[in-house]
Amino acid sequence: MSDANLAGQNGIVFNIQRYSVHDGAGIRTVVFLKGCPLRCRWCSNPESQERAPELAYNKKKCLGRTLCGSCQAVCPHGALTDGENDKIACRRAHCQRCFSCVADCPSTALHILGKTMTVAEVMKVVATDSAFYFRSGGGLTISGGEPLMQSGFVTALLREAKRHRIDVTIETCGYADWAALAEVAGQLNRIIFDIKSLDAAKHRFYTGASNALILDNFMKLRETFPGLDILIRTPVIPGFNDSPDEIHAIRDFIGRFARVRYELLPYHRLGQPKYTFLGRDYPLGDRLLPEGKMAELSAVLQPPQFTTTTG
Ligand code: SF4
Ligand code: SF4
After folding, report:
1. Max intra-chain CA distance, the chain
2. Which terminus of the chain is less hemmed in, N or C, by CB atoms within 10 Å?
3. Which cofactors are required for activity (predicted)?
């Protein structure tokens, strides 16, 4: 779908999470948009990466071919075959994403990740909790994926939220066209901006893209919007950036700029089952953060002109 279509009133959303307290100030509703230019190996929302809606299959919920099997009968492309233990198997290469099978699946083992929503539909959900926002200092956070891949839709959402006097934040990986970022930033109360590593080669290996555009965008953002509240976040990933040298380098870089807060986010593997639902392998394998690692890295952030969250 082109930005021309999205620039009006439609966007592709994969989740709307109410009552979040981790994505900006106060109680917030987080709208997650599909599509991301990066392919971070630890991504906890793999369903966010592709822009188009996708078919997910949760084998545990499948009732089995003997009892059901209705999806096999409706699939026009032979994508649903006989799997082990009477379950079905999904041949991803054959699936044309017509989603005919989803309506026929009584257990929701087959389901769609992502749907097209209008600004009005999203805002109806967001506005439901307005009273909580005003009492807690919360509001709307637009996340992803990378929300700036649907910048026309984001701009329209922000405009509506402002009209309702709702505080607005976006979470961005920073890998975006500067014009789109600047247009959106001008409407925000705050931006949450990821800086994952200053090591260009490692960044490319672990995320699929260089960090040059991200760092450049951050510097332009600080310069162009000196009053904007910027929170930099670094997800701490085992084997990638979980060393004091890595965190020190980021801290020194952002320490050159005024009015920037900083948080470390601990790695988790909560998104791993979703890779299975999408028929994908989890790229980071079974790595874990060593015990005490977050405390060790937090010590790097002294003196405390930075706000740190170590989970
Ligand atoms: S989405 Fe369509 S093509 Fe894909 S498995 Fe379902 S019915 Fe078959
Ligand atoms: S329709 Fe759903 S429950 Fe039935 S066999 Fe297919 S995946 Fe399993």
Report:
1. 65
2. C
3. [4Fe-4S] cluster
The verdict on whether omega for the bond into residue 145 sits within 30 degrees of 0, i.e. cis, is yes
pTM to 2 decimals?
Answer: 0.92
Are 154 and 170 a contacting pair, CB within 8 Å? Answer: yes
Q: Along the 311 residues of the chain, how does pLDDT read in single tens digits?
A: 444 444 458 999 999 999 999 888 899 999 999 999 999 999 999 999 999 999 999 999 999 999 999 999 999 999 999 999 999 999 999 999 999 999 999 999 999 999 999 999 999 999 999 999 999 999 999 999 999 999 999 999 999 999 999 999 999 999 999 999 999 999 999 999 999 999 999 999 999 999 999 999 999 999 999 999 999 999 999 999 999 999 999 999 999 998 899 999 999 999 999 999 999 999 998 899 999 999 999 998 875 555 544 43
Q: Is the CB of 238 under 6 A from ligand 2?
A: no
Evaluate: CB of 269 within 6 angstroms of ligand 1. Answer: no
Which residue, judged by its Cα, is nearest atom 8 of ligand 2?
62
CB neighbourhood size of 56 (10 A)? 21
In whole angstroms, how large is the CA radius of gyration of the chain? Answer: 21
* CATH 1.20.120 for domain 72-113: no
Domain ranges of the chain: 3-51+115-301, 72-113
Cβ 55 under 6 angstroms from ligand 1: yes
The alpha carbon of residue 241 and the mean position of all alpha carbons in its chain are separated, in whole angstroms, by 19
For 3-51+115-301, which CATH class? Answer: alpha beta
